[in-house]
Design brief:
The protein is an alpha/beta fold. It folds into 2 domains: 246 residues, TIM Barrel (Alpha-Beta Barrel); 89 residues, no CATH class. It has a 9-stranded mixed beta sheet with strand order 6-5-4-3-2-1-7-8-9, covered by helices on one side. α9 packs parallel to α13.
Length: 360
């Protein structure tokens, strides 16, 4: 793509998103097709898979999912992320995915890669996704499989990755940093570079959505380690500094949620519930018997009406551009949207100081 075309595309995207924000059009959806998974990762915020299977209500059937997608497209949705659990576990994944693409939706798929068969690859070749994001939790099978709880999952994930790349499907790799895989971050980056695909990491771990287990928090790396990984390369430090400076250039947003949740984006779980985002559970609404437009217009925007009542958090002070959490994450960890944990505060403070050092 030429520089002129890249500039035109970027400017169009900016104008499009600005218009969607101004008119509150739901242009982006995240759909959990299932909360079931063929793996049982130790850090998963959905909790233990055995317990998940026991407690889960019935998932929406194929027809209900397709009808929902049609309603969303009619309301202005353009970008769709299909996630889980493991979305490829649904036997009707191909039918749902094909319907989404035929509606004109730009689709991203989140998967662990182990269920990427030749049939799935052929589907993606016929109806190309925007990208397929695959999670790798270790550069070695021992580390990856230890985290997923399933021997052979590392090998199967790489088989899926290679199938997609051979078919010309756009792939991105990512990982969640934790104590058991931090030492393999550089090797993961090298492996991704060797395949010519983008790679990113995240050190965010949350209590479980259901049951509130805090076990994933025990897997966290230290704030110092998280910031060191975030700013390891000069370009990373430069990006964080530019982000912080851009945020500081405008007054603090009075909204508790100054993001796209409930403004241009929403989340749908496998059971028919809609929310501004997956972590904003208190704002979730059941969709049974009501149209999407009614729920979007009358209820999902309520999150945007919330205002800060305090100014002493990293989300409202000078360090706000260095924060990688939000009020929804605060609520999950401390029980209150406006009260961040010591871990989150310390990480933001260290990231701010490191990014703003003069030797960029």
């Amino acid at each position: 793509m030429s520089c002129d075309l890249q500039t035109m595309t970027r400017e169009w995207n900016q104008a499009f998103r600005a218009r969607a924000t101004e008119t509150r059009i739901p242009i982006a959806a995240t759909l959990e097709l299932t909360r079931r998974c063929n793996l049982n990762c130790i850090h998963c915020y959905l909790g233990d898979q055995v317990e998940q299977h026991r407690r889960q209500p019935s998932e929406l059937d194929t027809g209900a999912v397709k009808q929902a997608l049609t309603e969303w497209a009619e309301a202005g949705c353009l970008y769709l992320t299909l996630t889980g659990g493991e979305p490829l576990l649904r036997p009707d994944f191909a039918e749902i995915y094909r319907h989404a693409r035929e509606l004109g939706l730009v689709v991203t798929v989140f998967t662990n890669g182990t269920l990427v068969t030749e049939q799935i690859t052929a589907l993606f070749r016929e109806y190309p996704p925007r990208k397929v994001e695959i999670s790798l939790y270790g550069a070695t099978a021992a580390t990856h499989d230890g985290i997923t709880g399933h021997p052979g999952s590392h090998r199967r994930a790489w088989e899926g990755i290679r199938r997609l790349l051979a078919a010309g499907v756009r792939v991105e790799l990512k990982t969640v940093l934790m104590k058991s895989n931090l030492a393999e971050l550089e090797e993961l980056e090298r492996q991704a570079a060797g395949c010519g695909v983008p790679f990113r990491h995240d050190s965010a771990l949350f209590p479980c959505l259901e049951g509130g287990s805090r076990a994933p928090l025990d897997l966290r790396i230290s704030p110092e380690e998280a910031v060191l990984a975030d700013l390891a390369a000069p370009y990373q430090k430069k990006q964080w500094r530019e982000r912080i400076e851009a945020v500081l250039a405008v007054p603090p947003d009075e909204r508790l949620y100054p993001c796209s949740a409930g403004r241009t984006a929403f989340h749908a779980d496998p059971f028919g519930n809609l929310s501004p985002c997956i972590l904003a559970e208190p704002y979730a609404r059941a969709s049974a018997g009501r149209s999407f437009s009614e729920i979007w217009e009358q209820e999902l925007g309520a999150i945007q009406e919330r205002r800060w009542t305090r100014t002493d958090t990293c989300l409202t002070g000078d360090e706000r551009g260095a924060c990688a959490h939000c009020p929804a994450v605060n609520r999950m960890e401390t029980g209150r949207e406006e009260e961040e944990s010591d871990y989150m505060r310390r990480t933001a403070q260290l990231r701010y100081r490191a990014a703003m050092e003069s030797n960029v």
